Amino acid sequence: MEAPKREGSLSPPPSKKRKFESTTTKKAVANFFTPASKKEPEKTVWAVINEGLLIARYNPAKEANGTPTKRRKIAAFDLDSTLIQTSSGNVFAKDPTDWRWWHPSVPSVLKQLHADGFAIAVLTNQGSVAIKENPKTIKVDQRSLAAFKSRVTSIFSHFDFPLTLLAACARDLYRKPRTGMWTELLEDLGLDEGDGPDLQCSFFVGDAGGRAARKGAKADHACSDRDLASNVGIGFKTPEEYFLHEEPLPFTRIFEPKTFLNPTLTTSTDTTPIVFEKRNALDIVLLCGSPGSGKSTFYWTKLKPLGYERINQDTLKTRDRCVRIASNLLAEKAPVAIDNTNADPETRAVWVQLAQKFGVPIRCVHFTASIKLCEHNDTVRALTNSTFNPEKRTILPHSAFAGFAARFREPQLKEGFHDVVTEEFQFRGSDEQRRIWSQYWI
Among 57, 220, 281, 328, whose Cα sits 20 to 30 Å from the Cα of 166? Predict the structure, then answer.
């Protein structure tokens, strides 16, 4: 299956902490007491990486003597609603035995792919499988992990050749459409830059293709499978296209980052400043916008050089402390910038009243980035290197963006502002930063 070649995936995931463990069954316990010369080797070996990625390596037969030939062609598949579906008809399996093949041809198709020289891999998001203990909630639900392992073991038992399954169990770099699983798979297959995968022949099959509702089928829940294939530069097909040979259907994406890349700006040399002029010797500049809309970047690149001191509730923790420190700065004749979301008139009124108390103007900068754009920015910031994330911020929950959208009221001059400046998001960065930012992350 052909697809245009692209640059490799993102920088590799952080250093790995692996925890290996095998499927535990009664047979395995009995096998413990069997002499080594008579023991059956484990067919499925499990690994946990960085508390977010679960890997199952299935090898039903002993490797032949010598180093096995590298398979550079990769046939990758999603799991649920692609290779299998529930027998019960439920969206989620009720127990480890609640599964059947998505189509009767699936096993034979995979067998033929292996015979044709493909490495077979399964890349699946499994957010309900807990492999990391969250100290703020409850301990890991070992039942979800055991049930998933049991189901995978049952699926793999139908094959007599090696397979690898990677399951992303957290909101991290491994979760599709992000490329962490693909990077890990290449490492597992022994494929590096010098002897990498055959991207022209490799492909990914998944049901999250961004299709609208159609006769007999609901709309796809996401476009993450198609986006993953695009990110790594391989071909993509839905299960209907691949197994049933149906014609491709139209699709849409919830967010297209490339639309925010201005082709008139050079990437490595552009130093065009953000337009904002200091009009008062002493004043307050209030920033208003969603998390991830560019407020902090605006402060550091424009307001800080103009002498403004930053007031940020993420670092100062409480509004009262923010107001107290801002008051002290204004008393010392230092202009201040309020780098918070400031979503509604009630919140903004606190700062308008402070400006009136000190008899200084207050200006508002409204950041208009959409919620999806802000989620994208936040994800890139949290999951990449320090050039995107100098303050080492962690990824925000969806509720942070939904909460802002629910509270937001557009700032108006009548609230007491000297002026309201609109700031639209425009990506600026190096060629490498642009390559990373323009991939699909949400």
Answer: 220
In CATH, the architecture of 284-437 is: 3-Layer(aba) Sandwich (3.40)
Q: What is the pLDDT of residue 252?
A: 95
Q: In the prediction, which pLDDT does 159 show?
A: 96
Residue 21 has pLDDT above 90, yes or no: no
- If one compares 91 and 224, the residue with the highest pLDDT of the two is 224
Integer Cα distance of 311 and 320 in angstroms? 11
Task: For residue 428, give the nearest of 339, 298, 337 by alpha carbon.
Answer: 298
Q: At what angle do helices 398-407 and 371-383 cross, to 10 degrees?
A: 150
18-254 and 284-437 in the same fold = yes
In the CATH scheme, what is the homologous superfamily, with its name and number, of domain 18-254? Answer: HAD superfamily/HAD-like (3.40.50.1000)
Q: Where are the domains of the chain?
A: 18-254, 284-437
Q: What is the pLDDT of residues 409-422, one digit of tens each?
A: 999 999 999 999 99
